[in-house]
Write a structure and sequence with these properties.
Strand order of the largest sheet of chain A: 1-4-5-8
Bound molecules: flavin-adenine dinucleotide
Helix content of chain A: 40-55%
Distance between the termini of chain B: 57 Å
CATH architecture of the largest domain in chain A: Up-down Bundle
Helix content of chain B: 40-55%
CATH topology of the largest domain in chain B: Butyryl-CoA Dehydrogenase, subunit A, domain 3
Radius of gyration of chain A: 21 Å
Mean pLDDT of chain B: 93
CATH superfamily of the largest domain in chain A: Butyryl-CoA Dehydrogenase, subunit A, domain 3
CATH architecture of the largest domain in chain B: Up-down Bundle
Strand order of the largest sheet of chain B: 1-4-5-8
Distance between the termini of chain A: 29 Å
Largest interface: A-B, 40 and 44 residues
Low-confidence stretches of chain A: none
Number of domains of chain B: 3
Number of strands of chain A: 10
Oligomer: heterodimer
Order of helices and strands of chain A: HHHHHHEEEEEEEEHEEHHHH
Low-confidence stretches of chain B: none
Strand content of chain A: 15-25%
Structural class of chain B: alpha+beta
Number of helices of chain B: 11
Largest sheet of chain B: 4 strands, mixed
Shape of chain B: globular
Number of domains of chain A: 3
CATH class of the largest domain in chain A: Mainly Alpha
Shape of chain A: globular
């Protein structure tokens, strides 16, 4: 497949660009933060997105979605990154849908239409430690009656606060560190013994910490196969990693554009600071790096349909490169703005904070580089 | 089957039948490359046969029009040819400044007669070209070149000196930038002209590089007579052609950065061969492993970027100033890769002579990569071009 967007994809991107710039620019995130909004994102905005088909972009048509595929989802994530739009798009519309598509018929009927219509929010609860490491899952699920009993904790759950349900990676056999013995369960918000609190991170987005104390779920809460959920979990995570990569690409592009505009305007020493070669060469280098991210992200998105067996490699490449370059883009943006880049009033700092979070979530540079090295045989 | 599937099947079958086994082994060093030309000494019969077969099909220049000897393939077909060649590890049948640089310029700026005359022998590898751009006083500031070209009525007469002319002593013809108007502003008095290196008054003097090899020369022109029809495009408008050609040259040099490392293996695997693995099957040296992974990530992302830019360019057109980005990134990346290969091979990478090291093939290749970010315009010049032409930053 050619590494270019087709006409339909370009239209979707342009529509997303226009909509988000108008309805959910950085100012909207700032407002949510300043108001200390309990949710950290706007339900009415999410419903508007549902009307455009975005929340159901990966949902099959028979469950009310538009089943557009990953390239489209990535384009939306990228535009959200450009505007720093806060929404549960990656958690719910990308990751939860990917998991539920592999669920049984009842699970699909129960959850997918609600996601497509914008009513239902579902988050993925996977990490427990300070670094992303799904194989380290220790939260346990033991057979209990006709179902399972869950005990343990999950932290840094993306969009997990006030979610209608969590998809939980639990250990059903083996030990921490084993890929085998992990299973996925869907647990509803009201389940007895489940409590969650909002964790505030530097990017002002929605994260939760969840406590599971003897949480009982029915047997049909299992998604996929018992003990054998790791591969499915990886497929879900790869979708999320690629979504975050696309978001960081958008954020990098926007902070770069803002910086170029700024150094073309700002005068010192009687000239535009953009005329100094010391800044020009760094800007040109950063431009080049962002071009590489564009290619890696587009390829990773295409691979989900084109070469699914390579999607993990594509996601690792995109997440690693987008994270690395995102951090560089944010650092250079602040530096090239001088003092004003350090102020809360100026938007650049929001980009720096979001990129910092996004590059850490679901695996940082070292995590993904290690995966690629293993795949490449070294 | 659609047309492309048929094309892939036919191509696979043809390559299987026509690519000699010897030409499917990785190149051991730059000596294994085929450059063609009047005086080329083929390293073996298979090399000659491979060039002849590919040349006859036009597949040394797959996307050039058939009427000029090219393969007449569209972009999708050319990609298929490339991937099928890669699948059987076929060597490139021909390295050629004619294909990489002169051809695209002639296709855009040459007259019909010039295209018909010069392009087919390039495709077949019969005429080897060199590039006469740089002069002792005109490197990065190429437009300040001084080689003089005078109108002598029925011919031009060229006098001056070029430097760093790659393979000038082995080439049959030269494409050359000359000054045809000394009064005009520097960019407006340059012309683009072609002539035979056997012409009277042309002499070359090889320069030895830090690798110990001498692939390039000082080139002297003493009242060289050149027929008038050898001028390409319009008199005094050669700078446009020179720049257009450079965008192709840069994309080509940048190409070296992606993958296809030394001996055709990934740099990570080369390191494993040399240093072994730990109990988990990971490269024993964990600090080096991290650097290698970074280079592999950048290498893969860079290859995808080359692909994307070619896909984005409209059929048959160049990619303009973005070639500077490919040149800059690809060459810097290639230097990094060779540094890592040197580290992976440790002391053995320092061996300069003997069969084990093939007379220091790796360290010589490593040294050669240092020129990547100089030739065809330095990295700094590329960054200047990106700043001005792509980012629109103000002139200092
Ligand atoms: C936290 C903080 C505390 C501070 N405290 C004080 C204080 O106590 N007292 C005080 O007086 N000031 C203070 N400052 C101001 C500080 O000294 C200035 O921000 C700094 O000198 C940069 O100036 P500027 O912000 O106007 O950036 P600009 O000068 O506009 O620079 C913008 C960008 O252009 C680059 N640039 C500018 N000129 C050149 C050039 N010739 N070549 C290459 N690049 C160039 C800069 O490096 C920068 O990247 C403080 C700033 C901060 C952020
Ligand atoms: C292996 C090799 C093969 C070559 N083959 C050919 C060939 O076949 N034909 C041909 O014509 N030429 C060839 N060249 C020449 C090559 O194009 C020049 O070397 C190159 O353009 C740089 O010119 P220079 O060597 O005069 O360096 P200079 O221009 O003197 O540059 C010296 C340093 O100053 C920096 N610099 C210069 N201007 C600027 C600026 N404006 N801003 C910031 N930094 C600047 C440069 O980046 C460099 O680091 C070859 C060179 C090499 C090394």
């Amino acid at each position: 497949m050619a590494l270019v967007l087709n006409e339909e994809e370009q239209m979707l991107r342009d529509a997303a660009k226009g909509f988000l710039a108008e309805k959910a620019p950085v100012a909207a995130l700032r407002k949510l933060r300043d108001a200390d909004d309990p949710l950290g994102w706007s339900r009415s905005l999410w419903e508007e997105m549902a009307q455009m088909g975005w929340t159901g972009i990966l949902v099959p048509e028979e469950y009310g979605g538009i089943d557009y595929g990953m390239v489209g989802a990535g384009l939306i994530a990228q535009e959200m990154g450009r505007n720093l739009t806060a929404s549960p798009f990656i958690s719910t519309a990308m990751m939860a849908v990917t998991a539920l598509r592999e669920g049984n018929e009842e699970q699909k009927q129960k959850w997918l239409p609600g996601i497509a219509s914008g009513k239902t929010i579902i988050a993925l609860a996977v990490d427990e430690g300070v670094k992303h490491d799904p194989a380290q899952t220790t939260l346990s699920a033991k057979a209990h009656g006709n179902g399972y009993r869950l005990n343990g904790e999950k932290s840094y759950i993306i969009d997990g606060f006030d979610a209608d349900a969590l998809i939980v990676a639990a250990r059903t056999s083996g030990e921490a560190g084993d890929e085998a013995g992990i299973s996925l369960f869907i647990v509803e918000k009201e389940a007895a013994g489940l409590s969650s609190t909002r964790t505030k991170l530097l990017d002002s987005r929605n994260y939760a910490h969840a406590d599971f104390k003897d949480v009982d779920v029915a047997g049909d809460a299992l998604i996929g196969t018992l003990d054998d959920g790791f591969a499915l979990l990886e497929r879900v995570l790869n979708v999320g990693r690629t979504g975050l990569a696309a978001e960081m690409l958008g954020a990098s592009e926007q902070s770069f554009d803002m910086t170029m505009d700024y150094i073309k305007e700002r005068k010192q020493f009687g000239t535009h600071v953009g005329a100094f070669q010391g800044l020009q060469h760094r800007a040109a280098h950063l431009y080049s790096e962002i071009e590489l991210v564009k290619s890696a992200v587009l390829k990773a998105l295409q691979m989900f349909a084109e070469a699914p067996q390579m999607a993990g490699a594509g996601a690792a490449l995109a997440k690693a490169k987008a994270g690395e370059v995102g951090v560089l883009a944010a650092n250079e943006a602040v530096q090239m703005h001088g003092g004003i880049g350090m102020t809360d009033e100026y938007d650049i700092g929001f980009y720096m904070k979001r990129i910092r979070a996004a590059q850490e979530l679901l695996g940082d540079y070292a995590f993904n580089a290690n995966r690629l090295a293993v795949l490449r045989g070294f | 089957m659609n047309d492309l599937d048929t094309f892939r099947a036919d191509t696979r079958a043809w390559l299987e039948e026509n690519c000699p086994a010897e030409m499917r082994k990785p190149m051991r060093s730059e000596d294994d490359a085929c450059w063609g030309g009047r005086n080329f000494k083929f390293s073996c019969d298979e090399q000659k046969l491979w060039l002849e077969r590919m040349g006859a099909k036009g597949w040394t220049a797959p996307e050039w029009p058939k009427e000029y000897g090219g393969g007449g393939l569209n972009r999708e077909e050319a990609k298929i040819l490339k991937s099928e060649m890669a699948a059987i590890k076929a060597r490139s049948p021909l390295m050629s400044f004619g294909i990489w640089m002169l051809g695209p310029a002639l296709l855009k700026y040459g007259s019909e007669e010039q295209k018909k005359h010069y392009l087919p022998p390039i495709v077949r590898g019969e005429i080897r070209w060199c590039q006469g751009y740089s002069e002792p006083g005109a490197g990065s500031d190429l437009a300040s070149l001084q080689t003089r070209c005078e109108d002598k009525g029925d011919h031009y007469e060229i006098t001056g000196q070029k430097i760093w002319t790659s393979y000038a002593d082995k080439s049959d013809w030269i494409f050359c930038l000359v000054r045809t108007d000394r009064e005009a502003p520097k960019h407006n008095g340059i012309s683009f002209i072609l002539f035979d290196m056997q012409s009277e008054g042309v002499s070359t003097k090889p320069i030895t590089l830090i690798s110990g090899r001498s692939p390039f020369c000082e080139t002297f022109f003493d009242q060289v007579k050149v027929p008038k029809e050898n001028l390409v495009g319009t008199l005094n408008k050669g700078w446009d052609i020179a720049k257009y050609l450079l965008t192709h040259e840069r994309a080509m040099i940048g190409d070296s950065g992606g993958g296809g490392a030394f001996g055709g293996r990934s740099i990570g695997q080369i390191a494993v061969d040399s240093l072994g693995t730990d109990a988990q099957g990971r490269l024993a040296d964990s600090a080096l492993r991290a650097d290698l992974a970074r280079a592999e990530i950048d290498g893969w992302a860079f290859l995808l970027t080359m692909e994307r830019m070619k896909d984005e360019a409209k059929a048959g057109q160049g990619i303009g100033a973005r070639s500077s980005m490919l040149k800059y990134y690809g060459t810097e990346l290639n230097k990094r890769r060779f540094e890592l290969m040197m580290a992976s091979k440790g002391h053995a990478a320092l061996e300069w002579e003997g069969d084990a090291s093939q007379d220091g093939a790796l360290p010589r290749a490593w040294l050669r990569t240092k020129a990547n970010s100089i030739e065809g315009g330095t990295s700094e010049v590329q960054l200047n071009i990106i700043s001005k032409r792509i980012l629109g930053l103000p002139a200092s």
